[in-house]
Design brief:
CATH architecture of the largest domain: 3-Layer(aba) Sandwich
InterPro entries: Ribosomal_uL4, Ribosomal_uL4-like, Ribosomal_uL4_dom_sf
Largest sheet: 6 strands, mixed
Strand content: 5-15%
Radius of gyration: 27 Å
Shape: elongated
Distance between the termini: 15 Å
CATH class of the largest domain: Alpha Beta
Structural class: alpha/beta
Number of helices: 7
Keywords: Ribonucleoprotein, Ribosomal protein, RNA-binding, rRNA-binding
Oligomer: single chain
Low-confidence stretches: none
Pfam families: Ribosomal_L4
Mean pLDDT: 95
Number of domains: 2
GO molecular function: rRNA binding; structural constituent of ribosome
Family: Belongs to the universal ribosomal protein uL4 family.
Amino acid sequence: MKTKVISLDNQSVGEIDLSDDVFGLAVRNDLLHRMVSYQLSKRRSGTHKTKGISEISGTTKKPFNQKGGGRARQGSLRSAQFRGGATIFGPVVRSHAFDMPKKVRKLALKVALSAKAAEGKLVVLDNATAAAPKTKALAAQFKALGWASVLVIDGAVDGNFALASRNIPHVDVLPEVGANVYDILRRDTLVLTKDAVAALEARLK
């Protein structure tokens, strides 16, 4: 499909032909949900921890006689029902990550790109560069373009552009190798440079 190419000054600078194999697939919400769950689960630290009965400090002695006291029988003061006792079935340190085939992850990225293209929220830039690392100037350009929540993906990120954009709220800048489903979906507008389009098509076809 053909899409126009614009500059940061909102000038049309030509057209580009986007591959239907990467940008023209049917949108599958089930696949996008699965991929976002995979990404968010994988980045969880999993360092939550409570103490089991074997980790509680205290005696192993039976607190009082089994019979004759008129009280419920007890085997340990480290049990869960006592103050300072153990937690039963509490969380332990573990990984929350789960496996997903590489082909499915690749397909999910193509579906995410296709979803943005289908919504009309995919923009192609000729290049994402800045003459100087000035946030004010870049923010004014974004405002003129109507980009309030945007992800910019470039082949190799320009240093000045990265510095100028990193203090603008709701703006992310990634190199093409870092393109992922979660970041594409969490921002309203997806902006790809011509270099990024070429790299993504070469990688995903």
